[in-house]
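#lab-general

N.A. 3:47 PM
ok so I finally got the sequence cleaned up, no stray characters, all 441 residues accounted for. can someone with queue access submit it? mine expired

B.Y. 3:52 PM
send it over

N.A. 3:53 PM
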Amino acid sequence: MLHTRDAAANVTNVEDVKDVENLEGSESSVSEAQPEAEVKIPHETREPVPELITTQAALVEYAQALAGGYGPLALDAERASGYTYSQKAYLIQIRRNGSGTALIDPIACPDLSPIAESTIGVEWILHAATQDLECLREVGLTPSALFDTELAGRILGRERVGLGPLMENELGVYLEKGHGAADWSQRPFSTAMLRYAALDVELLIELRDALAASLDESGKREYAQQEFDALLSWRPREHKGEAWRRTSGVHGAKTPLARGIVRELWLTRDDIARRRDIAPGRILPDRAILAAALAKPADQLLKVQGFNGRGAGRYEKQWVAAVQRARGLPESELPKPPLRSDGPPPPKAWADKNPGAHARLEFTRLELTRISKELNIPTENLMQPDLVRRACWNEPVDDPQFYRDLLTEGGARAWQCELVLPVLLAARSRRPDQMTFEDVI
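B.Y. 4:20 PM
back already:
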């Protein structure tokens, strides 16, 4: 709404002021011409927020209620990412029709076998399953069937697949953003945190049903089911090589000594973080490690510009000792440059290094973009980009089985192979002189 007082502050003569003052009576017409933004009313829990389960007796009682429920099982887990070293669950939320919602403290109740035993063969509903599967597995909970609402949203081509946007789009319900990034390792939980946790699963079953109906209507149910089945054997990716090499900005450590300092500081920080169960970055950020590596100080580490963080001063002796260890190593024991990847080079270099592969990749990209638009599925869900690049980088092979094996061994599902394999086979015959203007741009 336009305020007379604010407008008058920006005019330069009396007549302009009078014109502005005359606006006072027409404020309602101005506001009518510009409709107000819709006020979203947050969804409230339909049932009282349950008491936190902190005893084995209460856990067993709820497990018995679960066994008497019906339909799939909605689950969620709250971790303390960014706060703790471990990625374990600090709160587990469960809901099933006929059983109600439970909020379980797995720290107070580490034996969740009663829950597992009462839900054998029951379909789980998770949102972004790969974020929670591992921490649930740590407490003995493993699904035998799964429906991932985020993944379903992706396959359906929904523009926004966060839990809140999906709830709003599919069910017309607005979930207020709350405590997702809170430190769930701290006790006690506030009433607001428990309310937030209960809301995360209260409508998850209804969301699953709405998305499942859309998958059926769009003919994508089989695509989704293959993805859900693959999640049952999912494990976190194991990073090859030495973990310290994943330090942010480590590529800036060009000399053996600089890499050695990064390694020794990283290992020291990791040891402290593991023993205290604190996220490493909260003790010493990666940028501080890199600052020390570039400065290569013999002492007075705290005077190095950029060497700061919550634990910079507290663990000064350990940091100085780490740098001195690196400085004391013969060059033969200092880290070598990183090994080259066994995969193809970055695509931007293909036109010069391998024009034929570049032509195949550009053709494949265009075709996958076309399929993506036709099916309304993101291209990254049609096939892992790395597998596409590997298939195109290789010199063309006559046997189609070569390409099928490359895709399936890389984790591609049958539905993905069905859609993408014909494109890769057609790309074999593409040559640089066949590239169009559209390919180049």
